[in-house]
């Protein structure tokens, strides 16, 4: 355990909790001040931003050119504000972690922590944080668990995480460096057989259960059926879109609604659910700008084509208007919880579960319809796979391998008039293809796209 980072993270968690009680105006003033600091820092310390923001030092944020993932990775050594390392050195460190030699939670070269994104959409991003930034990353994830009602006393909380065990994934680095007298975590692999995960969870009896939505749904079905018997005080769905029907199954299983956590490796937490079931943006940590396909900001309540994020605490790798492929809408209005942060109304999937343009025209609008039919049944997972322009292929993993479920889904889909004119194929499969980080996106484009 790293005492220093723990002490820093606990202090940062207290500062974050304090801001939860601020007014909207206080948050706005704070954001402006942090943004000004970040922009000054970036143009004076990073040769990339010196060029990228040349002549725009006094321009409003909305006029600064975005930074894409390929741009970040191509110019990485120029983006860095420290001469202590290079992209090549970070890549080498991540390679060694993947070869399973190192402890992902340990500090690297005395003060750094690194992680990589999955790279499912082409380019993989790597990130590096100093101790101070890392304390904020930890505190931002802790905020989600605090909002979900996890006790913050001195008794250790038993937390089970069903996601990726890849040591270069940020969640592994977070878990390894936060494992402490305060949190006892059990990490389980989302790709492991369900029966193994069920036994491990029964033995561990978690008070908090965290996982990919596609990993939690089969566990909820196992709980309803009786093989899993845990009583978590909070269930948190992260990394994948949490559908209403999956949330309903989890609510039935554990008698309380799951909390949704929206985060990315580059930003840490971006938003999460409060006790009133509404998602609040972490406005004090990240500036979120949904934009349309041309890069223009969309009005409140409108879902953007992608998202620009400015990470207010980023200093080693400053991220200013960095592009994420998520499609989100910001809501207006207040929440009875009184937190000063804006609401995240819509959260749609990422690029890795987007179809091609051709696929979208014939199948994109049908996702909701398919979801309504398929998720009425006890299925562990399902996926809409794009095969040919005139064909819809639905892969279904029925709970307990029950083939009758698949027959019934096929029959119901054939009866839907909206699907007439489409060739709909429903196939039973034992498991779904997953991304390198074990995620199972709802929709999948053909390989190679
Ligand atoms: Zn709220």
Automatic annotation (TrEMBL):
InterPro entries: ANL_N_sf, CapK_Type1_Caps_Biosynth
Coiled coil region boundaries: none
Protein name: Coenzyme F390 synthetase
Lineage per the UniProt record: Bacteria, Bacillati, Actinomycetota, Actinomycetes, Micrococcales
């Amino acid at each position: 355990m790293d005492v220093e980072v723990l002490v820093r993270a606990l202090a940062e968690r207290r500062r974050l909790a304090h801001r939860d009680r601020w007014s909207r105006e206080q948050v706005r003033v704070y954001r402006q001040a942090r943004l000004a600091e970040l922009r000054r820092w970036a143009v004076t310390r990073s040769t990339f931003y010196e060029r990228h923001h040349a002549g725009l030092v006094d321009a409003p944020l909305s006029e600064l050119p975005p930074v894409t993932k390929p741009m970040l990775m191509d110019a990485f050594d120029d983006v860095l504000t420290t001469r202590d390392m290079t992209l090549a050195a970070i890549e080498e460190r991540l390679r060694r972690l993947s070869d399973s030699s190192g402890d992902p939670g340990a500090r690297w070269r005395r003060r750094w922590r690194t992680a990589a994104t999955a790279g499912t959409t082409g380019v993989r991003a790597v990130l590096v944080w100093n101790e101070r930034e890392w304390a904020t990353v930890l505190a931002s994830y802790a905020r989600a668990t605090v909002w979900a009602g996890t006790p913050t006393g001195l008794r250790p909380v038993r937390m089970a995480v069903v996601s990726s065990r890849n040591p270069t994934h940020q969640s592994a680095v977070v878990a390894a460096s936060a494992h402490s007298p305060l949190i006892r975590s059990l990490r389980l692999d989302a790709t492991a057989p369900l029966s193994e995960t069920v036994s491990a969870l029964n033995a561990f009896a978690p008070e908090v259960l965290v996982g990919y939505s596609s990993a939690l749904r089969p566990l909820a079905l196992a709980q309803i059926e009786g093989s899993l018997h845990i009583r978590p005080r909070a269930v948190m769905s992260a990394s994948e879109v949490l559908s209403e029907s999956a949330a309903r199954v989890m609510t039935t299983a554990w008698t309380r609604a799951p909390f949704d956590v929206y985060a990315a490796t580059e930003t840490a937490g971006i938003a999460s659910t409060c006790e009133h079931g509404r998602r609040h943006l972490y406005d004090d940590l990240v500036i979120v700008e949904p934009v349309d396909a041309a890069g223009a900001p969309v009005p409140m309540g409108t879902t953007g084509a992608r998202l620009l994020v400015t990470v207010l605490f980023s200093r080693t790798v400053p991220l200013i208007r960095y592009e994420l492929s998520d499609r989100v809408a910001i809501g207006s209005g207040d929440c009875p919880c009184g937190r000063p942060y804006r609401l995240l109304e819509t959260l749609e999937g990422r690029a890795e579960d987007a179809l091609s343009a051709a696929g979208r025209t014939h199948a994109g609008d049908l996702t909701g319809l398919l979801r309504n039919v398929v998720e009425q049944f006890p299925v562990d997972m399902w996926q809409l796979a794009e095969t040919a322009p005139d064909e819809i292929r639905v892969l279904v993993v029925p709970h307990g391998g029950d083939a009758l479920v698949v027959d019934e889904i096929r029959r119901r889909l054939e009866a839907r008039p909206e699907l007439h004119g489409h060739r709909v194929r429903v196939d039973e499969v034992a498991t779904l293809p997953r991304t390198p980080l074990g995620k199972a996106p709802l929709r999948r484009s053909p390989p190679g796209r």
